[in-house]
Amino acid sequence: MGVTVNKMRLIGGKGLFTLQAEVGSAKITPAHSYPTRGQVVHDFTLPYTDGKRISLQDYRGHFSLVLIFAGDPSQITEKKCLSELVQRYSQIREADAEVLLVLACSRERAEATRHQAKQPFPVLADEDLQVHKAFGALDPRAVPAAALYVTDRFLEVFAEWRTGEGDSLPNASEVISWLDYINSQCPECTQAEWPRDD
Length: 198
What we know:
Low-confidence stretches: 1-24, 190-198
Distance between the termini: 30 Å
Number of domains: 1
Strand content: 15-25%
């Protein structure tokens, strides 16, 4: 269910890409639905801790993504998952992937959290919780909850976990296994493994 053809074309000069995934099996996540496997996530743009704004489009076509959504930094319950992702960040980067941590707080608090926790990856601030809401990172009482998505470089979801729905977040080994699987589905991303004459 991955993108096996790397072709893209510009639409209307606006820099939006129509991908083989969207023309073929993968569909854009419907409005008022959470992204699930085989769907392409909607773009979002949020402030980065250095004041710039980061969009998913900035990574599209370049990196697979590990999107992790968490609550207010003072109440983060997914510290073990985050700690493992930090420890194995070099492996994630070797898999041509990037981690984006989206916190339910102000940019200033996100910046302080990134500095204190020495996060090596971008930390974004979702002050109005609209992105958390769109990705199912709220519990039934609309309190921020954790969610984690693994997408390919064209934003197609390969795996998702939402604690607000009772899921437990994966460990870093599981995340890296998904990234390796994504790379194995894309002949342009990795060297083909030819059968041996045994």
